[in-house]
Amino acid sequence: MKKIVLAYSGGLDTSIILRWLQEKYKAEIIAYTADIGQVIDRKKIIKNAKKLGVKKIIIEDLKNTFVKEYVFPMIRAHAVYEGTYLLGTSIARPLIGKRQIAVAKKFGAFAVSHGATGKGNDQVRFELAYAYFGKKIKVIAPWREWNFQSRTDLIRYAKKNKIPITKDKKGAPPFSVDDNIFHTSTEGKVLENPKNTAPEFIFQRTKPIEKTPNKATLIKIDFKNGDPISINGKKLKPEKLLEKLNQIGGKNGVGRVDLVENRFIGIKSRGVYETPGGTILYCAHRAIESITLDKDTMHNKERIMPFYSELVYNGYWFSKKRMKLQKIIDKKRNLVVGQVVLKIFKGNVIILSRRSNNKAYSMKKVSFEENKHFNKKKVENFIKYHAKKL
């Protein structure tokens, strides 16, 4: 029997897709779930898939791989799309797509499938990953193929096929929520109109500023080879380190962003994002680089960042362009070693101190009390040289 590997969450939409694929393609479905730190109910996933006739269910723990090999490289690049978005959803899809293709090859599946809609970015991100790792494997995108025209059509199909429907799914379309260990995003419903204020109940990871502690949280983050390795002196695996920062940032209201972004396919979209731990890491990494890297290296990274971020946003994580930029970004990462002390308070990440044995920052040259190591005559010539360029 033909086989299809479906990116399966266990929820209503992918359950409908699972049944639809069986009917349309007369194929055996392999339900694949990548655990990248999202809220996950393993028992529900297995129960729902089995009820729909699935024999092969794979739930793969990728949290540490996701943080170490996908999130950390983005942090080193200081990647921010359109000046605001830390790319939490964007960076997850390439890994899921890669692993789907690996599963498809292992079990001899002729196709892979996903539940991304025809208006979103995720369909591109999934399918570019599929193309990179499995050009000969067919891609099935139900939202671009089936004849369902509305939510009502989907609900009717679910009832007909005895697919469980939670109460909030029966009426108006639900919020579209994506989460992983790096972030949570919420779109749809009242958020679609940018004049509407985001209701407080949609936030899942961060407290409102009014309910955050009145006492600041102080933390020390140690960096080695450009990546964080410990918090307050305790070494942690990448996933545990990010989890810890998520807890600290979340209770202090750090990492909320409400933005209107330009999707790759040309549509503007309004969304609310929560990236508490990622926001702390972003600020801390910039701080440690400020005393460990030279000016040219730092400025070159700043010039690269918008292009790098757009490549990630558009799904080009595995492209030669992104990989080339990553090599430039990481060229001197071995110099990024040291410790940053931060104060986390009322939604703010405040840098208190930076320390490193790296010699990029010179106390002798910067001190107002020490002029022996600084030639003022050279500064005068420097200014005259640049004045000629006016």
Q: Total helix count?
A: 13
Shape: elongated
Work out the number of β strands.
Answer: 14
The SS-based structural class is: alpha/beta
- The tally of domains stands at 2
**Quaternary structure:** single chain
The overall pLDDT average reads 93
Instruction: Report Rg.
Output: 24 Å
What's the CATH first level of the largest domain? Answer: Alpha Beta
Give a short account of the largest sheet: 5 strands, parallel
Which fold name corresponds to the CATH topology of the largest domain? Argininosuccinate synthetase, chain A, domain 2
* Superfamily (CATH H level) name of the largest domain: Argininosuccinate synthetase, chain A, domain 2
Taking the alpha carbons of the first and last residues, their distance comes to 73 Å
Fraction of residues in β-strands: 15-25%
CATH architecture of the largest domain: Alpha-Beta Complex
Order of helices and strands: EHEHEHHEHEHHEEEEEHEEHHHEEHH
